[in-house]
Write a structure and sequence with these properties.
With 334 residues, the protein is mostly helical. The protein is 54% helix and 7% strand. Helix 3 crosses helix 12, helix 9 runs antiparallel to helix 12 and helix 10 crosses helix 12. The model has no long low-confidence stretch (mean pLDDT 94). It binds adenosine monophosphate.
Length: 334
């Protein structure tokens, strides 16, 4: 991994809560698949979490849990790097430099900034505004060729590409300009109670809206049984007039690998209740081994501590290379 011969895939997730099925189907499950073809680097993005007030103890606990969950899901530490963002100071350093190459106007257009500012009117901090610049630094530090993300991060990846191109135009080919990677299904998983809105960790008011990867089988089944459906009784993919059923169809296909057409045919005439249970059961089967592995790994503190330390060191060594180059280009003493 020290001399990447293969292309690089980079992605991250905030440890603001445990991952839900949106995170898993939209991003995390693709991380695992991409290991076959790419050198992968996966980050627990704790610095990003600070843009919204966190309980310090809870954040530390969650960061560790998310690290363990990456492994439980199938990120292989022999092939890929896994680390925590704040342990590699190069992220904050590069983010500062890139802040000076990002424009207020482009950051002002970010939908996520607008949405989060509306939700946190008492804490519209500068970090929330420059979040996409830190994300650009994360990705560009490792020369990532592709970034597996959910649909909601499309705009942030665009700005990352713009910053990279702007910098390269000034200083030569310093950064690799990354491409987004979206899975075939599941890139936008909607809430089970509010299928017009994406499933989001920050909407924790209605627990039935969100299915967590570590929910127990009973909880998962109950959440799916209570999922909002639409008028009529046909199981048909049509997001505009059947948002509830269309979301369930997407989840089923993302979990089982079936196509929408084949799934519609399979459940033709079966009714909503039957279908909801089938989706719940498919999700339970997908989540079960992950939950078991998560519990097993969580007990091995020494192994996790050692892995974290080794991977942080290797990741930092990689990050320093591009950071050093950037510093030289812009005129900083190293
Ligand atoms: P975050 O929890 O915001 O750090 O997001 C981690 C990853 O999950 C990102 O790649 C997001 O694009 C993806 N993601 C978050 N919510 C959803 C969703 N509802 N559907 C699909 N992907 C999602």
């Amino acid at each position: 991994m020290e001399q990447p011969a293969r292309l690089v895939s980079y992605s991250a997730m905030q440890p603001t809560g445990l991952p839900h099925m949106g995170n898993y189907l939209g991003a995390l499950q693709n991380w695992v698949k991409l290991q076959e073809q790419y050198d992968c680097i996966y980050c627990v993005a704790d610095l990003h979490s600070l843009t919204v007030r966190q309980d310090a103890r809870q954040l530390r606990k969650r960061s560790r849990e998310v690290f363990i969950l990456y492994l439980a899901m199938g990120v292989d530490p022999e092939r890929s790097l896994v680390y925590c963002q704040s342990a590699v100071p190069a992220h904050a350093e590069l983010a500062w430099i890139l802040n000076c190459y990002a424009y207020m106007g482009e950051l002002n257009r970010m939908t996520q900034f607008k949405e989060k500012s509306q939700k946190n009117t008492d804490n519209i901090n500068a970090g929330l505004f420059t979040y996409p610049v830190l994300m650009a630094a994360d990705i560009l530090l490792y020369g990532a060729n592709i970034v597996p993300i959910g649909d909601d991060q499309r705009q942030h990846l665009e700005i990352c590409r713009d910053i990279a191109e702007r910098f390269n135009n000034l200083y030569g080919e310093v950064f690799v300009v990354p491409e987004p990677y979206f899975g075939e299904a599941g890139s936008r998983v909607m809430g089970l109670q509010e299928p017009e809105k994406k499933m989001s960790k920050s909407d924790s008011a209605n627990e039935n809206n969100i299915v967590y990867l570590l929910d127990t089988p009973d909880v998962i089944i109950n959440k799916f049984k209570r999922a909002v459906t639409d008028s009529g009784s046909e199981i048909k993919y049509s997001p505009n007039d059947k948002p509830g059923i269309s979301n369930l169809l997407s989840i089923y296909c993302a979990v089982t690998g079936e196509s929408i057409d084949a799934t519609e045919a399979m459940f033709d005439g079966k009714g909503y209740g039957y279908f909801k249970l089938a989706v719940g059961e498919a999700v339970v089967e997908r989540a079960r081994p992950i939950r078991q592995k998560f519990e097993e790994l969580g007990k091995d503190k020494a192994y996790i501590d050692d892995l974290m330390a080794r991977h942080t060191e290797r990741t930092y060594a990689l990050a320093k290379r591009i950071l050093g180059k950037v510093k030289r280009k812009v005129g900083l003493l190293s």
